[in-house]
Amino acid sequence: KKPKGLIMAADSGFFRVRSVSMARGGLLPALRHNKRDLPERGNIVTTRSHLNYCLHHVGDENTPQAINRAVNVILAQHDIKPRKNACVAIEAIFSVPASWHNRDNQAFFAACLGWITEAIAGELLSFDIHLDESAPHAHALILPVVDGKLKGSEIMGGKGNIYRLQRAFAESVGVAHGLPLNKRLKHNERN
Questions:
Q1: What are the pLDDT digits (tens) for 52-99?
Q2: Beta carbons within 8 Å of 64's beta carbon, 6+ residues apart
Q3: Residue 57: what are its φ and ψ, rounded to 5°?
Q4: What is the pTM of this model?
Q5: How many CB atoms within 10 Å of residue 23?
Q6: Across-strand partners of 132?
Q7: Sign (positive or negative) of CA dihedral 91, 77, 22, 25
Q8: What is the DSSP string of 52-121?
Q9: Contact assessment for residue 152 and residue 19, using Cβ atoms and an 8 Å cutoff
Q10: What radius of gyration, in Å, describes the C-alpha atoms of the chain?
């Protein structure tokens, strides 16, 4: 699904963010997807899953359960008990064109990792690269704890903030790695 407001040219990539809500099962389902700890699903080519890799994870083990336990420890340290509908994490997705499967994308994804740690406040929980779907992409999960409080909705902001993040990413990382700078569509130009 393409991010609203962006032209998705055939040879472009994208950056988007979404909130991970307690109302939708919390953090564990997102971690399980990113770590490929789920039953086989439609878009995943399991014969390529061994090519996936992780650039960062919090805690001693790189498993969904271990990262989820580390998050629970962090929340307890700050005496945070998330509400039923709280934004418990922010997920950022970085994607490149499908044609980039034949390239070495490690420098691009390393630049994405460096950028996201500066662009979004909170603690980076994991940064996973998937090479087993149609287009190479990465998932970053960020625990939005700032000043001892869970501030997911505040950090996400509205559409304007998300557009600002998309533009900043495109200008500082995307263009430097050969992705075209796409223009934002006006409401009446969208499909």
A1: 999 999 988 999 999 999 999 999 999 999 999 999 999 999 999 988
A2: 28, 31, 32, 34, 35, 37
A3: -155, 150
A4: 0.87
A5: 12
A6: none
A7: positive
A8: -EEEEESSS--SHHHHHHHHHHHHHHTT----TT-EEEEEEEEE--GGGGGS--HHHHHHHHHHHHHHS-
A9: yes
A10: 17
CA-based nearest residue to 182, from 41, 171, 79: 171
Q: Is the model's pLDDT at 2 over the cut of 50? A: no
Tokens of 139: 């998932």
Which one, of 190, 191, 181, 188, lies nearest residue 14 by Cα?
181
**Tokens standing for residue 47:** 């014969």
Three-state DSSP state, 152? helix
Question: Which tokens belong to 152?
Answer: 């997911």
